[in-house]
Amino acid sequence: MAEDSAHLPAEILLSKRVQEMVLNDEEPPAPYKCRQDAESEDDDDSLSASPIPIIDLSRLSSSQEPAQETEEELQKIKLALSSWGCFQAIGHGISGSFLDKVRQVTREFFAQPMDEKKKYAKAVLEFEGYGADPVPEEGQSLDWSDRLFLNVQPADQRNYKLWPSNPDSFREVLEEYTEEMKRVTELVSRAMAKSLNLDEDCFLRQFGERSQLQARFNYYSPCKRPDLVLGLKPHSDGSGYTILMQDEVGLQVLKNDKWFKVPKNPHALLILMADQMQIMTNGIFKSPVHRVLSNSERDRISVVVFYTPEVGKEIGPEDGLIDDKTPKLFKKVKDYADIHWGYYQRGMSALHAAQV
Ligand SMILES: O=C(O)CCC(=O)C(=O)O
Ligand SMILES: [Fe+2]
């Protein structure tokens, strides 16, 4: 059976979910195979400390905190985002038990029978809903994962027909998580601006009053051949920045041509710069390439929230970062996420399209 499906076009393959193939004990069909190098991605470093910086956001918002300690945390943010393009945020004010609840409703959704999940299925060419990303261009591999993608903010953009009614707390949990994400994006956007000595509201102004939040719930089934597939292919995000949580390891971030594992930390959120923050900071903050490995033993979920400027709003490098010695590296762009998507489908980065 696996041989037959190897010759099917990606459109047909996409109508069958990875979870179904795993339940049928199928080997990954050819369009999913993207790795020949079979690097050894073992877990032997799982006990060692991760080099990805940790930032305590509570040190920024506490009015009791001595100014010097706040300043230290801001410097850590600047250093983290200009070298790694990401940090693990703790002290973000969301309780561990609520983060567990978000992970739990995600797991419960994906654990349902396929017929239940397909009630929320997207059409092959559409984006929002349950399934896989739209078919990439010829020659691009498919990801060994399933996902549910939902617009959550502005609230008038929600398509509640695609919001699962099972588990029955899903909607309420996602609404609450969205409120938390709004709060965290305000906190982080201001902190990033302050770390660069800019007006603290400058990034919030660029994102606009109708800035967007989109939630992507990823489910990574185990794979018998993790050496041949990827849960998600290497990419940078097209959003402004992304807030991510996972329940198991699997995500890796590229730095200096080396992959680094994002450690399992049930209390941390990964704040990951995307291309539009690289543009707004004139290249000071980096939008890192990241990918998700497959695992032969266990499944994994992640909940990813993309924070993106309002539709139709022009964004560009902050004036305060440009002077005679530091020319503008990027042009003003609008709806960059769409440009990014076009290149992503061809396996390419889009940032050059925004370069001066
Ligand atoms: O699952 C993850 O940890 C990463 C997901 C991701 O990179 C994305 O959805 O853009
Ligand atoms: Fe991503």
From TrEMBL:
One of the GO biological process terms: response to molecule of fungal origin
GO molecular function terms attached to this record: 2-oxoglutarate-dependent dioxygenase activity; metal ion binding
Keyword Oxidoreductase: yes
UniProt keyword Nucleotide-binding present: no
Domain Fe2OG dioxygenase: 211-309
UniProt keyword list: Iron, Metal-binding, Oxidoreductase
Positions of the UniProt region annotated as Disordered: 24-51
Coiled-coil segments on the chain, per record: none
Protein name: Fe2OG dioxygenase domain-containing protein
